[in-house]
Amino acid sequence: MALVTGAAGGIGAAIAADLHERGWHVVGADLRPAPPLGRHVVADIADEAAVATLVAGIAADEGRLDALICNAGIMIRKPVTALGLAEWNRVLATNLTSTFLLARAATPLLRAAKGAIVTIASTRARMSEADTEAYAASKGGLVALTHALSVSLGPEIRVNCISPGWIDTNGAALRPIDHAQHPAGRVGTPADIASMAAFLIGPESGFITGAEFVIDGGMTRKMIYEPD
Ligand SMILES: NC(=O)c1ccc[n+]([C@@H]2O[C@H](COP(=O)([O-])OP(=O)(O)OC[C@H]3O[C@@H](n4cnc5c(N)ncnc54)[C@H](O)[C@@H]3O)[C@@H](O)[C@H]2O)c1
Prior knowledge:
By secondary structure, this protein is of the alpha/beta class. The chain has one domain: NAD(P)-binding Rossmann-like Domain (Rossmann fold, 3-Layer(aba) Sandwich). 40% of the residues lie in helices and 14% in strands. The chain has 6 helices and 7 strands; from the N terminus they run E-H-E-E-H-E-H-E-H-E-H-H-E. It has helices at 10-21, 48-61, 85-113, 133-153, 176-180, 190-200; strands spanning 2-5, 26-30, 39-42, 67-70, 116-120, 158-164, 212-215. A 7-stranded parallel sheet has the order 3-2-1-4-5-6-7, with helices on both faces. Helix 2 packs parallel to helix 3 (85-113) and helix 3 (85-113) runs parallel beside helix 4. The radius of gyration is 17 Å and the shape is globular. The structure holds nicotinamide-adenine-dinucleotide. Nicotinamide-adenine-dinucleotide is lined by residues 5-6, 8-12, 30-32, 44-46, 71-74, 94, 120, 122, 164, 166-167, 169.
């Protein structure tokens, strides 16, 4: 039984569909409604009371929780001089604080099931474009929160992080150079992330915890200095 946040679209929907296909019972949570694969809950995962209700509902309805995939996230792109405190707080609450709230609420169920948590950070935890301060800070925090949780919640609960690079979630028209600039030769797909999430909550990854997996087609390994 797996809880996937941000399951109404993009990477979260792909993770939910992939887990469903692999035989997992999936509860999706999102601000938006979605066709349920197992059960879908409309909830704001940045809200403490909503998270408590979500997890209490799983305890009551499913009676167990084996995997928590903290995927929901937002980005606000704005020059730092124009970024309002409320906007900063919203990005941090959605991308970082939500994982604290979810992990805290779900720990008893995950402990009982000897389960696993997967957080979805970003290569932007380590590198940036301009005007993305709140997002980068939230994802850097999420990488650190992941290893902290892995130490605190082990040995019963394993906690790992996936940091995606460029993942095409909406079928945007991509240029040949968009693909070619990646050492792997292509932009990523939601399925690239879903398969790693499935591995990290499955029995084959039993000796892996506190780790960050960068899935970016090699972009963060590539020197980008202009040649002479
Ligand atoms: N797409 C990429 O290239 C990429 C790269 C690196 C990291 N990521 C990360 O992957 C995750 C998924 O990204 P995506 O591209 O699929 O995004 P997306 O915008 O397509 O989907 C995110 C989903 O999260 C939901 N959501 C947002 N705020 C929420 C809240 N407070 N409560 C509940 N649900 C909420 C949205 O409604 C949406 O369905 C995010 O954490 C994102 O930062 C994405």
